[in-house]
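Translate sequence into structure tokens.
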Amino acid sequence: MSRNMTETDVETVIEYMNDAVRGDVESEAYSQTLDSWADDRPDDLETLEAAHDDENSSFQWENVGFQKENRGRDRGDELVPMTGVEPVEEDDLHELAHDFAADYLTATIEEIRDMQESTDYSPRQFVALVLDAADNTPEEVAAHEMDISVGNYRGKLGDVKQKHERAENTVSVTERVRA
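Result follows.
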């Protein structure tokens, strides 16, 4: 499938994806970021680790991540890195932590895109699937999140159902033939 999942669609998937899958995605992205920094920026990684161990530092690994932030009335929300550091207190450390959090956010976005790409669903069908699987998300809210009509949202869910059934049939036939 094409790899044209928009930032907005990725943000929607991250927001509505069930906790277990989101945890797996974020864990993999975090590990990739640590590995990348260990290879490419070992001194900076060591600085962050030392700051984490320093009781006088505000830096904590647990506070590194990302959150949705409002960009203004006409631009909506976007995901932004969270550093886990007070910028006024530790300027250089804040910059390092921001770089790490930004890399972690980028890795998370790529994990979501890779997940979608590994399916037969289009990017928009994948978003519809995630919204449909989210607990207590009315279809009006889901359609609004996707910026489409309720009818269009229902059509995407119909496409998802057809592709899922076809995939199940493919597995069934393959297993019967190989048996």
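Note: Helices lie at 7-16, 19-40, 42-53, 91-117, 123-133, 139-146, 150-178.
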